[in-house]
Fold:
Amino acid sequence: MATVTLAEAAAETPVGREPRGSRRRRWTAGQIMLVVLLIGFTALFLYPLVWLIAASLKPGSQVFDNSLIPHTWSFGNYVEVWRELPLLHWIFNSVSIALIAAALVAVSSSIVAFGFAYFRFPGRNLLFGLVLATMMLPASVTMIPTYLIWKQTGFLGTWVPLFGANLFGSAFYIFLQRQFFLGLPRELFEAARIDGSSYWQLFWKIAMPLSIPSFVIVFLFEFQAAWNNFQGALIYLNSGSVDGFTAPLGVAYAMTKYSPTAGGHNNYQYVMVASLLVTLPMLLLFSFGQRYFIEGVATQGRKG
Structure:
């Protein structure tokens, strides 16, 4: 067998091209700068969460020392917080309200969106424009009329005002779902109509199974909005019972209870623990729904 010399191998290698197996990624100055910026922004966004975790593991006297590594580790805070605050009641209330609100608005918005996407009738675009125009109304404008409506119906102090309006859909979610439904082949629905399917069957058996990604993204958006709805809980949950608070309202109550002016500065670690614990459900939800979330975002603007 002939022996290939280094000179012959070099001669066979084209000029300007490295031998196979010796290629290495060369970083340009722009790529290095981009990576540095990404690392910097990642650290910037993670800092509040890391600070919160560190503060939750400190005794009350060291909560605000701005140290990311506690000088004294107090793991007992995660046990004592359940005795200090009705945290389990707050989380249960928030989860229940958020699930009901998200399910109602996802289904109702999907039904309305399917109507705008499938049916063709005079004035459809005008009516859809009026639906979208409702998004231009600030929440502060409709706050008092909405409050008066719930007061007249006798639902003040209950959960109903926190999710009742979701029975009628949301303009933003209707827009998102309509964009997805417009991307579905109309031939599927026409073939089903020839086979005798009703309009409800078109929606429930064809449109809904194909729109799972967009349905999940609407569900996630509304769950997050309902979970963080501090203003609504503050206005409508006026029963006076601390156990009836939602998680955001309960954390605000804990901040007031353990504030320095109330003489509770040395117990502020419980506020940090409660804040961290009520953040975890949202992190878990988006972690489990990440695949649907990304797919839903990627498919919303396919067709206008």
Remarks:
- DSSP finds 15 helices and no strands in the chain.
- The radius of gyration is 28 Å.
